[in-house]
Amino acid sequence: MPLSQLMLRLTLAASLSSSVFLPAFANELKGHHSPYLAMHGDDPIAWHSWGDEALAKARKENKLLYVSIGYFACHWCHVMHQESFVDPSIAKQLNENYIPIKVDRELNPVLDKRLIEFVQVTNGVAGWPLNVFITPEGYPLVGSTYMPRDHFSGVLETINQRWSKDSALVMEKAKDLSKQLSGMLGILELTTQKISIASQAALFLEKAMEEADDLQGGFSNQKFPNFPQIHALLEINAKKPNPEIDEFLRLTIDAISTKGLHDAIGGGFFRYTVDPGWKTPHYEKMLYTNAQLPILLFKAADYFNHKPYRDVALETIDFMQREMRGRDAFIASLSAVDNEGNEGAYYLYTEDDIRAALNKKEQAIAFAVWDLKRPPEQVSGNLPIQSDSIASLAKDLQMTEAETGKAIDELKLKLQQYRQANRSLPKDNKQLSGWNGLVLSSLAAALPHKPALRQSGDQLAAFLLSLWDGERLKRSAASQQIGTFQDYAAVAKGLLEWSNASCEPRYAAVAASIIDQTWHLFYNNLAWSETSKSLLPNSVAQSHIADTPITSPETLLLEASAMLGGKLMNQRIQSVLALSNRSLNADPFAYASLISFSLTFEKQE
């Protein structure tokens, strides 16, 4: 739910109750299947997993829960780990005065979303690592992002003193705050039949172009790929092309595919760039980013008749196959930090690196193609970014375009081999059902261009089928945790698209069962829930679900249902699209994928 532009900040004065000293108990995270949680398994903190047992313990001991949320590829999560969570004095404060909870946001995305919303509204900014103090009844009290060790220690002391002084008052304030937030969210969910969702397409285009960086492409100062928005722009504008929007789309997709968001040597995409010029990435590589962008690039290649987009899409598929393929499926992420603790160093090259990896002729080409003689922008060197078009480079190098392209491909392979031989990069090997569903959709889009992907797609489809027991879908193979709405929708759509691409009807049959169950589990009384169980009170049912960096699960399910077709599916889709809400009408940019789908579905009816 987008909140920053729709709500006034709330100010919370946290107060706190008597705490009882109890001996420390075991850290539950030792050997956990999540690499992020497992890395905290040796902390001197008595970490609990999020769940009923932890809340019951908090109620029994009358202690606040301290909930720390992060993910493996998050640089500042690692920093806070080394500064605070291995520190014995911090551990003593947490163990004696709180019930410490450690959460992998990728395993508990709905809890993470709820607490991100809370911190965004109360602080004005949110992110990871996320730190939230929660009452034993489950009401969020106060939260923040990264805190240096000394500041964190002071916060722990202050909150404990206030809780010890008057826990009843603090609990009452937390309940009141929760009611206020729920009321505000409830207002945004008020529905209307007077404004159709499809009719908001024009407003979406207007808002998108108002937010657009028409000089460098993308949106805002930090450049995310914004897949749902760019994809929706492309789809909507294709129906009635506007040259200004076409120009912006070309500018943005060129930046995504050729500048610092893209790994020019190994392929694949980083999560975002920290600067408006797309030069300096935040170096983690997320599976969902790399699963979705090929779909955008394939469509852009067709729409603009521009083969290089298709080449980058296929290169991204190859990257995922080579570096993100796990034993059974694709893994969650590659860390931003190498095994020596240096952010981005795995991807950076100095002039000495180039000389060590290549012969003299190759060095001259590499320096020219990727501008690697520029002054070092980071301690570990520079990120290779192609300096010009192949045509211009060929002219400068006095080579044909074909010779230049072949030489670049050979240099990429050598530089990949060099960094693999001399550096190592931690990986989060979780294999999540929903994110792998996105990959299967991407493989389906790539199959007509690369038939050799058939075996890989069939193997991935088989993995996803193994997570479905006919009634419930697991979030990952490594646990019994039930999937979220996002998991169900992405897996169903991926199986359906792979069925169509591979001409295998058995995948469609399973997808139909998952789709039907998804409607039953997550859509009731004209509203969506994103998980089958929430331990936080005052959750607000959503009439529509906004996009995140991943396409909204609502849109994924509607798209899959439309592909399946039939009277029942069409009735279900129509019941959803019949209602708009205040949030969507105020901020159509956040609901880009739903608006695009609605416009397409309306024209088909």
From TrEMBL:
Residues 1-26 form the signal peptide. It comes from the Bacteria. InterPro entries: 6-hairpin_glycosidase_sf, Ssp411, Ssp411-like_TRX, Thioredoxin-like_sf. GO terms for biological process: carbohydrate metabolic process. Keywords: Signal. It holds the Pfam family Thioredox_DsbH. This is Thioredoxin domain-containing protein. It comes from Leucothrix pacifica.
